[in-house]
Every structure is written in structure tokens, then in C-alpha cells.
Amino acid sequence: MKRPDKVAAFRSLLVSPQLEFICEAHSGLSAKIVEEAGFKGIWASGLAISAQLGVRDNNEASWTQVLDVIEFMADASTLPIMLDGDTGYGNFNNVQRLVRKLEQRDIAAVCLEDKVFPKTNSFIGGNRQPLAEIDEFCGKIKAGKDAQANDNFSIVARVEAFIAGWGLAEALRRAEAYHAAGADAILIHSALRMPDEILAFKTEWGGRCPVVIVPTTYYATPTEVFREHGIALVIWANHVLRAGIRAMQETTATLFASESLVAVEDAIAPVREVFRLQGAAALQEAEDRYLPKARLAPSAILLAAARGEELGELTATLPKTMLPIGNQPLLGHIVITLNALGINRIHVVRGYAKAAVSLPGLHYVDNDDFAENGELHSLALALSGVDTDVPVIVCYGDVLFKKYIVELLRDIDAPVAVAVDTNWQESVNRHRTADYARCSLPYSRAAYNREVDLLEIDPQLAPAAIHGEWMGFMKIAAASLPGVRAIADEILRHDRRAKLPALLHELIRRGQPVRALYTTGNWLDIDSVEDLVNAGGF
Ligand code: SPV
Ligand code: MG
Asked: Which of 34, 82, 86, 478 is at a distance of 20 to 30 A from 184, taking alpha carbons?
């Protein structure tokens, strides 16, 4: 990836024939915001960085701590950054080390001020602040220029003569010396409310080298005045920090007073804006490119619209799926089993006494006409609301099962698959109706490792033809969802009471294989009070 030449970009700003502007930032986030606003460069303000760290602008933050902050800023933005390097954090030797470290971090420029370490902010008792010896300061500039590896790295010498109460002559004397020592530009600072000092300086200075200003106190001066006087670069030095302080104070005061989020929600940036500024979308794209495709957990559809009349009084006010088994309703047990397989998007089709079907965390699909239609209608309703990029596991809302049954289905690679219980004789013995299945291969050792297809499902199947019992478990691959949905709709147009086997038959009839997975026992459908009692021990 081509990186912008930040160092050259800053030098062009300094020498450009027109008035240029850079803006303060104090963090990776604010650097990005300054860039998005359209600025061409960033002022890494000592005041703003120290303030956001919660310390004073008196070199309380160590220079390496400042370096850590501007490294984040440089990473977050493509703009050139000029560090407010205070006095250089020591003597000429410290300046050399600073310049090397800044270049390593792709910082384009440093501004050094002619005060004494530890410095204090120019607006705090400026006229009591001692200035550096001119020669000593010139030595720092020379040392910095000698240390830089990139010819375009800029060192801006900041003259604090006006701040410290000296006049124009001293300011000019210093500027001249710093210029001669190799400074690429002069920052002339003033704490007056009018621009008189800096304009007088610029008039005398002429075009000897670019002049940079910080109009924090003489903010009311029309920008045109700076332009007319040939100022090279204006620094808006602390306004992002101050905007942030005001916004934080107002928001926290409102939150504290109102004990509610309502009053602030619309006044602050939405969370998605935070993600955007952090570049979350780019990471998502990169994940798609570089991460192995994670197997997404399927979603599940539980068909639970029926009452369960066979249970008589027990289901007078509750559908079967909500009957208590131990400490939870039947539905709760099913959900726990699915959750254990990583399946947490569960769509429950409810109908009879639907208000009673209300466990938290589930997606409900209402089949209000449940008395007039059948299972397939319930399935079709649910299929229209599922995520289409993950497979769907379908099961009945009145069946308890060991999780491996669904696990096998989850892991099988087939457009549509069903679990078939080899233990079908038990159902015959219990004289209950069951969906008996005939498959392409009977259950045997030979069936292990072989693809077995479902051929037929019929409660009336002759015992000699039965290979197992279908318990209602079905998996539909994500790619098969639209096709299955269309076939279900077609069947329902002719028979709105159709049951699930009708769907399987139609798939088979159209030559779309339905894979059969043999399992043995380990499930229980609740059809009688006896089942309910047995379920307690399942
Ligand atoms: C800063 O932003 O830290 C500066 C400019 O040095 S000023 O606060 O005006 O001194
Ligand atoms: Mg500063």
C-alpha cells in the first residue's frame, strides 16, 4: 500500500504561496476528525495532549508518553503532523534523539520554543517566563537539523519574546539567529487580543522565511488580514480539545441531573459513528479476505402451534410445548439443548394459547390460523423470517432429544437432511402413529460412511419396508432455503393442511435428494401423561 509522503506534504504547506491552515488534534480519534474536516495538516498541541492526559502543560507528561500519543495520531490519519515539541525536552542531545524518534513515526515537523525546561503554557503568566539563551537555542536547532534523515523534515523555531514581555527588536534578533541556525520557519507567538505584535513582526521580517502564527487570543482578527500580511501558516491550536470539553461537560451534567439517556441520545454521536471513525468496516472486509470462513451456527425453527389435545385438561390453557418438565417448560429444555450446540437464533411458531409461549430470547412467529392449517404452513411462515445465509434446523416443539442428533444434522453437508431413528419397533409396540421411513440403504454397519437417501415417509408403510422412524428433525442448507420455501408454498396452494412429510415427498419426487442420517433412540415425543412423567428422567 502506498503511503503518503507526509514530510514532503508539510514542507509544501510551509512554503506554499497561499495562506495555509492546520488544526489541533490530541488523539487518534481527533486526528481523524481533523482530517475528515478537510485540513491539510495537524498541530499536535502540547496543551491539548497534556490536557487529555489529565496533566498540566508543564512537561508533566514525559516526552515518550507524548510520543505514544502522536504515534496513534500518525496511524489514524494520513495528514502530516507537526509536534509541539516544547523546548525539546532537554538540551541539544535530547532534541537529536527526539527528531530521530519523530522521523521513525512519520511525524513531519517539530516546533521548538525558546523557553526553559520545564516550560509552562504561554498563556499562564507568560511575562514571568525566562527565555532560553539564544546561542543555546540555536545549538538545539542545528543539532535537530543535523539529526534529521529526511531533508524535508521541518524544524519550526518558536519565538516567545512577545509572550515574555520583550519587544519587537528582541523578537527579530531571535528570529534572525534561529533562521541562521537552520530553522525552516519562525512561529511568532503573541498573547495580545489584537494581532499588532505579530503583524509588526511580519512587516519587519518580510519574506526571509515562512512565518507561522497561533491566533488563539487575537481570534477576532479577520483571516484576510493574515493573508494580506503574507503569513504562511495559521494554527488553530486548541479548539478541538475545547469543543470536546464543553460537549463532555454538557452531556455528563444532563446525564447526572436527568438520570436518563433520553435527553442526550439525539445530541451525541451514534455508536455507529464511533465504529465508522474506528474503521470497523475495513476490518470486516479484511476478515472476509483473510480469516478462514467460520462455520456459522444454523438457526432453528420449532413448530409449536398445536395444542396437544391428546393431553386433555393439561393443555386446556397451555400448549404442549409449555408443559412443565422438572423446573422448566418443555420448550425451555429444547432451547437449552439447541443453545449447547451454539444455536441461539431460534424461531418458535406458536398458535394455540400463544400468549403463554413467551420464553425470553426467542423469535416468535404467530400462526393465528393454526386450527385451519398444518405444520407445513407453520414452517413456511417461519422460513420467510430466517437468515438466508445460515442453514436451518427444523424440529417439533414437543420433542425432547439428545443434542448429538441435531449435531449430526448440523454437520452434514447436504441440501436437505433428516434424522431417522433405527429404533422404530418401539413405536409399533406402543401403537402410536409414526412417520415411518424407507431409505436407499437399511441401517447396518455397511451404511456407515455411505450416503443414504430418504425414499419414502408414510405412517402406513409395511413393516418389511420400514428402515426407521422420522422424528421431525430436518436440516435445510442455506442454499436450499429459497427452493424449499417455493415448494412449500406450492404445496400449500393445493393443501393448506399439509404436513411436513408432504414437503419431503415433493423434494424426492422432483429428484432433489433428501439425505437420511441414522440415529438410535435418545429422543422422546410427548404424546401422553406417561410420556410427560418419563420426560422427567430423560
Ligand atoms: C499548544 O497548543 O500547546 C501551544 C500553543 O503551544 S499555546 O497554547 O498558544 O502556547
Ligand atoms: Mg504548547
From this structure: 34
Q: Using an 8 Å Cβ cutoff, are 461 and 494 in contact?
A: no
Q: Do 160 and 131 contact (CB within 8 A), yes or no? A: yes
Note the pLDDT tens digit of each residue in 304-340: 999 988 888 889 999 999 999 988 999 999 999 999 9
pLDDT at position 154: 99
Q: Does domain 6-242 have CATH number 3.20.20.60?
A: yes
Please tell me if the domain spanning 6-242 has the same topology as the one spanning 299-535: no
State which ligand 1 atom lies nearest to the alpha carbon of 163: 10
Q: For residue 370, give the C-alpha cell.
A: 393454526
Residue 45 CA, ligand 1 centroid: distance in Å: 6
Furthest C-alpha separation in the chain: 114
Residue 156 confidence (pLDDT) above 70: yes
Q: Which amino acid is at 35?
A: E
Residues with CB under 5 A from ligand 2 (ion): 46, 84
- Pick 299-535's CATH classification: 3.40.120.10, 2.40.40.20, 3.90.550.10, 3.30.230.10: 3.90.550.10
pLDDT in tens, 399-418: 999 999 999 999 999 999 99
**Ligand 1 lined by 373 (C-beta under 6 Å):** no
Ordered DSSP codes for 131-170? BPPHHHHHHHHHHHHHH-SSTT-EEEEEE-TTTTT--HHH
Catalytic, 495? Answer no
Rounded Cα–Cα distance for residues 136 and 139 (Å)? 5
- Mapped onto helix, strand or coil, the DSSP state of residue 394 is strand
Q: Is the CB of 121 under 6 A from ligand 1?
A: yes
Spell out the domain ranges in the chain: 6-242, 246-290, 299-535
Ligand 1 pocket member 46 (CB < 6 A): yes
Q: Which of 57, 86, 106, 525 is catalytic?
A: 57
Mutate to test the pocket of ligand 1, among 56, 57, 82 (most ligand atoms within 8 A of CB): 57
Task: Report whether residue 84 contacts ligand 1, using a CB cutoff of 6 Å.
Answer: yes
